[in-house]
Every structure is written in structure tokens, then in C-alpha cells.
Amino acid sequence: MSLCYSQLTLSDRRRLHQLVERKVPVGDIARQLGRHRSTIYRELKRNTFHDAEFPEYSGYYGGIANDISKERRRRLRKLSRHPQLRELVIEQLKALWSPEQIAGRLLADGVSALRVCTETIYRFIYGKEDYPLQLYQHLPEGRRKRRPRRSRKPRDGSIPLDCRISQRPDFIADRSRFGHWEGDLLIFRRDLGEANVTSLVERKSRYTVMIKNGSRHSRPLIDKIVDAFSPLPAFARQSFTFDRGTEFRGFKALEDGLGARSWFCDPNSPWQKGAVENTNKRIRRFVPSDTDLSAVSQQQLVALAHHMNSLPRKCLGYRTPAEVFMAHLRESS
């Protein structure tokens, strides 16, 4: 008998039907199916078909038992039993909260006695009964079906040894200190022009900054980062971690203009700047790769960054990046 319990499958129930028909004792059925006898007793009690009009047709049938079980589980789902909780989840999904943020905020607020886990929300979104609501389109990647994540491969290039990520101090890697950023470039369809967006994320607070660029030339792009970060105190802009794209080759201007160090990931290792990679997926919900950036202003990108910085994050104890970022600025001022 397995030490890990799992629900009876349709094939299990068909086998159980055959054994019941042969009048095999419950103890022997349990051993043959690798289940506890209590599981078999409970299954027969709960999922036996009863027909009051034609009692001779009553009995345990594998397919019917499976349907009865599915229907009972559907009725018992929390989001079916609690309409107010269901409406709250739908409302927050439409406000572009992720299932993880919804579940975490319910727990963190402690206002409602009802709780719902992330997986329950995903099953609600992709379940057969509620799929017609098309709530999947409000998820970060808007996928019609759940599938494994894939990572974009970064470009390679030669980077000075003292700027490679292997030389970066441990206190940056473990997020124990404030003021260390990750940066990346969001590219759009070539036929829509050369415009792109620099995304920058502070590692400890996950605070996001977005900057529109007219091209991928390194020096203008770096100069815009310098202009955007100059108003911040020095402790809030100590270093930046990039991939090996040519657009960041002018990184020395960051040291000259901001006094900030630059670090570069290893080849084909986007996970080494995971904060900004994760943020890029969130940004793509609002500005997908087929967006015409000529119709998007810097002010609109600032408003989008403000929206993202106002969403609660699990990694921050369901505080928002803006709350954490401002707290660090006040503590060090």
C-alpha cells in the first residue's frame, strides 16, 4: 500500500466494479488495489448508484462512480460554495493581480475568514466549468493552456574579468543590502521601428523603473539611465547587473555619472538576473512584443511602472515594491 494517498482513478473504479461483481471481500479488494480498506468502504458508500424507480439497476459502476465523485468535488469547491469570494477573485484577476498575489493578500490582510490557495485559483481559471469566463487572458502571459515556462537566451560578448558576476559581492546576491539594480532591454518587432524599453529593478524592494529609448545604441541608452537615477541618493543606486548585450557596453558612463558599479551575467544565464527577467514577463502583459512604441509615451511607461510598484508581492510579505522602496529611502536618509 502506498504511503502517499491519491484519489481513485477511473481505471481503479472499473477494477473495483469487477471485483464487487465477483463478490470479492473488501479486505482482498483493498490489497489488490493497493488501498486501505477504509478507502474502499468509503468509495462504495459514497459513489454507489441508487435508482428508486428501478432498484434492480442500483449498484456500483465504475464510470458512474467516477462521474458522481467529480460532481461532488465540483460542488465542494470553495469558489463555488462562496460566491462573494469568487467575485473577489474575479475582480482582482481583472485588475491584473496574479493568483499568487490574490491568495497571499487574503492571508496577509486577515480580514476575511475565507482563504484560497494559488493552485485553487489556477484550477478555477482553467477548469472546464469556468473556462468560458476567459480569465486566463488576465494572467501575466495570457496562456490559453497551462504549460512550463521557458527562458529567453541572452546574447554573449566579452566582459572585463572584474565586471563578471562571479566577482560580485555576496551581499548583492543575497539581497541583504539596498540600492543594487538589475537591468534589461525589452525589444519589439523590427518592422515597428527601433524603439525599445529599458527595464530596471531594485533587487531588494523589486521596485521597477522603465525608460523608453529611440534605438539600441549604447551611449544614449546609458545616458538615459544616468539621467533617471541622478535624483536618487548614492546609497540607492550602488550597482547595476546586466546581460551581455551590446547595448550595455557603455557601462563605464554609469560609474562616471552615478558612481555605480556594473556587473554582467555569464553567457546564457538569464536566471542570474532573475528579478528583472520576472518583471519583464509582467511588463509584457501591458506592452507585448507587437506594441508600436511610437504610440507609447514615457509618461505612460511611468504610469505603468507605478501600477506595477503598487501591486503586493509574495517575496515582500505581500507589501508593495513602492512601500518597501520608500521605507529604505526613509531609513537611510
UniProtKB/TrEMBL annotation:
<dbReference type="InterPro" id="IPR012337">
    <property type="entry name" value="RNaseH-like_sf"/>
</dbReference>
<dbReference type="GO" id="GO:0032196">
    <property type="term" value="P:transposition"/>
</dbReference>
<dbReference type="InterPro" id="IPR025246">
    <property type="entry name" value="IS30-like_HTH"/>
</dbReference>
<dbReference type="Pfam" id="PF13936">
    <property type="entry name" value="HTH_38"/>
</dbReference>
<feature type="region of interest" description="Disordered">
    <location>
        <begin position="139"/>
        <end position="160"/>
    </location>
</feature>
<feature type="domain" description="Integrase catalytic">
    <location>
        <begin position="165"/>
        <end position="329"/>
    </location>
</feature>
<dbReference type="GO" id="GO:0004803">
    <property type="term" value="F:transposase activity"/>
</dbReference>
<dbReference type="GO" id="GO:0006310">
    <property type="term" value="P:DNA recombination"/>
</dbReference>
<dbReference type="InterPro" id="IPR053392">
    <property type="entry name" value="Transposase_IS30-like"/>
</dbReference>
<dbReference type="InterPro" id="IPR036397">
    <property type="entry name" value="RNaseH_sf"/>
</dbReference>
<protein>
    <submittedName>
        <fullName>Transposase</fullName>
    </submittedName>
</protein>
<dbReference type="InterPro" id="IPR051917">
    <property type="entry name" value="Transposase-Integrase"/>
</dbReference>
<dbReference type="GO" id="GO:0003676">
    <property type="term" value="F:nucleic acid binding"/>
</dbReference>
<dbReference type="InterPro" id="IPR001584">
    <property type="entry name" value="Integrase_cat-core"/>
</dbReference>
<feature type="compositionally biased region" description="Basic residues">
    <location>
        <begin position="143"/>
        <end position="153"/>
    </location>
</feature>
<dbReference type="GO" id="GO:0005829">
    <property type="term" value="C:cytosol"/>
</dbReference>
<keyword id="KW-0233">DNA recombination</keyword>
<dbReference type="GO" id="GO:0015074">
    <property type="term" value="P:DNA integration"/>
</dbReference>
<dbReference type="InterPro" id="IPR009057">
    <property type="entry name" value="Homeodomain-like_sf"/>
</dbReference>
